[in-house]
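User: Can you model how nicotinamide-adenine-dinucleotide sits in this protein?
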Amino acid sequence: MRAHGLAGTIVGHARSAETREAARQIGFVDEVFATAAETVQGADLVVLCVPVGAMGQVAAEIGPHLKPGATVTDVGSVKQAVIAAVAPHLPAGVHFVPGHPIAGTEHSGPYSGFAGLFRNRWWLLTPLPGGDPAATAQLRALCEAIGANVDEMEAEHHDLVLAVTSHTPHLIAYTMVGVADDLARVTDSEVVQYSAAGFRDFTRIAASDPTMWRDVFLTNKDATLEILGRFTEELFALQRAIRTGDGEMLFDYFTRTRAIRRGIIEAGQDTAAPDFGRSKAGR
Ligand SMILES: NC(=O)c1ccc[n+]([C@@H]2O[C@H](COP(=O)([O-])OP(=O)(O)OC[C@H]3O[C@@H](n4cnc5c(N)ncnc54)[C@H](O)[C@@H]3O)[C@@H](O)[C@H]2O)c1
Ligand SMILES: O=C(O)C(=O)C[C@]1(C(=O)O)C=C[C@@H](O)C=C1
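Assistant: Here's the modeled complex, given as structure tokens:
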């Protein structure tokens, strides 16, 4: 917001004095406050950026101090649980527009943010039924001005989609790295030394913040368990193909998944992948 000149004054709150000082030094806030209540006073827009499990507590702290007509949004990775935790604490006349930028890294804390983080990434909004359309439109315009592509969907649908595209993949990465760690026949130094690219990608994901991800799984329980059930079924099918030497099944399966990867790259959603001119050539 600062880089694009989209806000007059940006103020922030963090629990630790160290984080507040870091935020001030980096310069992405004009002022920091030791309490959430002080921070939101007079604010037109309040963005809640705490782990999903802490959203309710912060909403309870700020509720009585919000300006009438203010908009509250959040960036939580799960939407139904955040809505249930936050909405009851917001007074009438304050607009709540839940949101989720599908952009991030395995890093946490004030030094991990950067102005281009949201560029060409999706930012999903899950407006509440009966909410103020003008507040949603204003937030959409802000996200777009930051460089994001905005889509709106129901919170329940969001949680199922993200269970497929983000939450279960994280759980699988955590598990794979845990498996490597547990395997007595492969020493830790071998895991580090010979770590192949695929495993290295898993370790990056598995280095993500434990509090954030604990809360994601505890609050998006049903959708994650559903997708995990399907994952297990597919895994057993692949396991069987390997055991029975069914190369055709494996080949067809990997051909299908390769097409999904190519679709993501063609949609411009993999910022890490080198393009090598492929998309231009239409291959
Ligand atoms: N990291 C990502 O990739 C990513 C992407 C999209 C959305 N999110 C969501 O954004 C939110 C914040 O994640 P982040 O990556 O910015 O984490 P972060 O660790 O960088 O920031 C979270 C902050 O919340 C503070 N906090 C924790 N519990 C608190 C409490 N009870 N009261 C007050 N403050 C508290 C922490 O001290 C920390 O300063 C989460 O809800 C997460 O699901 C994260
Ligand atoms: O690239 C990463 O490090 C991420 O995991 C970011 C990522 C994801 O793509 O799954 C993680 C959680 C979010 O809620 C949104 C984005």
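A couple of observations from the model: Strands lie at 11-13, 31-33, 45-48, 71-74, 95-96, 99-101, 122-125, 149-152. Confidence is low (pLDDT under 50) at residues 273-283.
User: Helpful, thanks.
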